[in-house]
Amino acid sequence: MKSKLRLNNIRKVYQDGDTLVEVLKDVSLDVKAGELIAVVGPSGSGKSTFLSIAGALLSPTEGQILLDGIDITKASPTQMNHIRLNKIGFVFQNAHLIPYLTVQDQLLLLAELSGQRGREASKRAEKLLARLGLTHRAHNHPDTLSGGEKQRVAIARAWMNDPEILLADEPTASLDSERGRSVVKMLADEVKLREKAAIMVTHDERMLDLCDRVVFMEDGSLRSK
């Protein structure tokens, strides 16, 4: 299978006064097309830093990041903004929907930011909402949605610009088991349908059977679980 995201020997070191703190230690991971990988581990183990580096929100101290075979480690700030907007989708613990925008407009705003406009963007939004069972909510505002519906909107928004990889940070933390499982299954189904890839940081072991692989992070190191 084609590699969508590859992290090679990633280190992240912070300066804390006179002390150097190594948050990530020689971390490597290869994520293939069609794969949903779960990253588990205790709080403070480096999971959030890892996800930020994988999503080009944070630069590594050392190492290489390949996205769809292209080294993005030394991309310019302008190039990185383009990569984050068009190549990477994000789903956070809280859906972070804009309260004054309807469900459909949440998606269309992202399309507009990347230069997509008009009927093509609208059709894409409609298809995504239909696929995630949200057509009847297209003109609702976030305060009228359930927790599971909000997360489904967040997933639809993350796919709006057809990214190569989707990164999810504790997407089920505020949901009950049934709704959480529904959200993760939708995420897994979309990854396989589109032959993309996804990484999900989670503490919820009830969702791990829906993932293709599980890796464990502890003290800044990554290993197979």
From TrEMBL:
InterPro entries: AAA+_ATPase, ABC_transporter-like_ATP-bd, ABC_transporter-like_CS, ABC_transpr_LolD-like, MacB-like_ATP-bd, P-loop_NTPase. It is found in: Cell membrane. GO terms for molecular function: ATP binding; ATP hydrolysis activity; transmembrane transporter activity. Transmembrane segments: none annotated. The keyword RNA-binding does not apply. The keyword ATP-binding applies. Keywords: ATP-binding, Cell membrane, Membrane, Nucleotide-binding, Transport. It comes from the Bacteria. One of its GO terms (cellular component) is plasma membrane. Residues 5-225 form the ABC transporter domain. It is a peripheral membrane protein. The complex is composed of two ATP-binding proteins (HrtA), two transmembrane proteins (HrtB) and a solute-binding protein. Belongs to the ABC transporter superfamily. HrtA family. Part of the ABC transporter complex hrt involved in hemin import. Responsible for energy coupling to the transport system. This is Putative hemin import ATP-binding protein HrtA. It comes from Priestia koreensis.
